[in-house]
Amino acid sequence: MTLLQIMPQDAPDTLVLRTRDTARIAAVLKEHGIEYGQWELRATVTADTTQEEILAAYRTRVEELCERDGLVLVDVAQLHPAVGPEWEERAAKARAAFLEEHRHAEDEVRFFAHGTGCFYLHIEDEVYAVVCEAGDLLSVPAGTRHWFDMGPTPEFAAIRFFKEEDGWVGDFTGDAIAQSFPRLDVLLSEDR
Ligand SMILES: CSCCC(=O)/C(O)=C/O
Ligand SMILES: [Fe+2]
Ligand code: NI
User: Can you give the residue range of the structural domain that contains 33?
Assistant: First the structure.
């Protein structure tokens, strides 16, 4: 289930808010110009599902969003658990690539067609951890400091939307803040 957990930037163990109420999540994020929404799931995604099949399943919604927000490029980032040393290495590399705080020159727009991932949004003096699940759409404004954790066993397929070819390139802030915050697996284990 989708989760929003807000923590002070200097007190990662302190809960300002923890909610799985998606209407509340949307409302809280909207106050900061972040769009959160849910699309009806249209396809079962497995390791054998191609990018083309995922894009075809969501074509209407994708086209509507592109038209509305002037997005021109779409692709699918996906990882599914496998076995063997190559997988372990690939997963660790992929995870590490987004685990440091960065910004993008354009909005970060992602739709989760499968699996789970957590965006940590550093907004003013707080960190908003948004655990996205299949069906979730998140649009984070350009320039927002953030990092992303796909967890120790990455499993997700996300449609990515861009205005420019290099829209995914991160500008790393050099702030080590991400290291102090609970990772995706810890966040999810803390249900009480
Ligand atoms: C869920 S898509 C991979 C993560 C990504 O593109 C990004 O920029 C994270 O900050
Ligand atoms: Fe990013
Ligand atoms: Ni999978």
Answer: 3-189
